[in-house]
Amino acid sequence: MTLLRKAVLAGMLLVCMCLSSAAASETIDIGMSAAFKGPTGGLGIELYRGSMAYIQRVNETGGINGKRIRIIAYDDGYNPTPAINNTIQLIDRDKVFLLFGYVGTPTVTRVLPILKSNSDKNVFLFFPFTGAQPHRQPPYEEYVFNLRASYHQETGGLVDNFIKIGRKKIAVFYQADAYGRSGWNGVRITLAKYGLKIAGEATYRRGTNFSDSLAQQVTILRNSGADAVISIGAYAACAAFIRDARDAGWDVPIANVSFVGSEFLINLLLDAGQQNRRDYTTNLINSQVVPSYEDTSLAAVQEYREYMDAYSQLPPVHLVEPGYKPLRYSFVSFEGFLNAKLLVEILKKMAPHFEKNRIKPVVEGIRNLDIGIDARVTFSSSRHQGIDRVYYTTYGNGGFVPITDWSRWHK
């Protein structure tokens, strides 16, 4: 090969590298590992759809200082090992700017050591879809920023309200892993303030399907004498538990936390109700960490409904199981929407210098930020959770409605 030819080839390689670098610099890459398939796949899909509805609008109107936001998403099936592998890939190979929108406690807790070991690279996880404690306390809280309230706050509020209406024998049905135990502990701690203990407890295996029987768990809790149940689980298992409880003639109030995916839960119960000619939707309570998407007095709700109708999209086809039917609106996609809206505000504050070492100080400097809901967002060096508000809903009139009076469940 002549010297001239070598020079030409070297020049071409340099041009290609420059073009590649320029193309990369035109996007802000965000990494997401979530359950897109399996019994909890709807959570990842709807969280993604809500986030992308806002991001797509931003991208189509000029992006952030001319840069488009791109989500690089991988499926972990709500299992720790794939989540670990995905996270390593996102950090080392994809070199994302930050991590965003992870789904679930069992996955998030297992990637926390990866964040800590990559602290020199300023790797942060933003707004995971979990209210668990491990990423809210040492030694990992400094690497995670949360928008939502914690499971301790959700379960604590449920306990407080049940006790106010005379339901002091509270049992817990929970997923046998870090997620379930986090919620279980929240119930235990709040009951202890009243000098009470958990009346009974029963667990189920992560990945349980709606078709599985949970009659044994129903029997255990019913025999405990419980007059209310708090469930910390995913929608398929929680719906199966509710179905089996009602089929057994046990009609005590059953409360679920936000992770359950309220719309997925109710759709399973409605379908089963049609088949079995029963109403499985009575005496249900769901705690939420975002306001109702029906409350159009809120600016963010108006935006959410408009953007979901105009911009929402499914994840890449390889991440979605055939036949999946997206929800028009849901608490999960609304949370994803708010997550993305807050992320965009953070990126705007960083523009035009998107340097990883600036992420932490910029976010920790946010005070009383209005994102269009009835609570303002504040972070600091000692506070990595944006809002504390918890909302309570029940099912009625074809949808989830806010609970304004708990006396209907008075014992």
Short description:
43% of the residues lie in helices and 14% in strands.
Describe the structure.
By secondary structure, this protein is an alpha/beta fold. The protein has two domains: 19-149 and 295-380, Rossmann fold; 151-288 and 392-409, Rossmann fold, CATH 3.40.50.2300. 43% of the residues lie in helices and 14% in strands. The chain is built from twelve helices and twelve strands. The strands form two sheets. Strands 7-6-8-9-10-11-12 form a seven-stranded mixed β-sheet, sandwiched between helices. A five-stranded parallel β-sheet has the order 2-1-3-4-5, with helices on both faces. Helix 3 packs parallel to helix 4, helix 5 crosses helix 6 (178-193) and helix 8 runs parallel beside helix 9. It is globular, with a radius of gyration of 23 Å. 47% of the residues are buried.
Give the % helix: 40-55%
Could you say what the CATH topology of the largest domain is called? Rossmann fold
Most strands sheet: 7 strands, mixed
Q: Report how far the terminal alpha carbons are from each other.
A: 90 Å
CATH second-level architecture of the largest domain: 3-Layer(aba) Sandwich
Structural class: alpha/beta
**Computed CA radius of gyration, to the nearest angstrom:** 23 Å
Counted beta strands: 12
Number of domains: 2
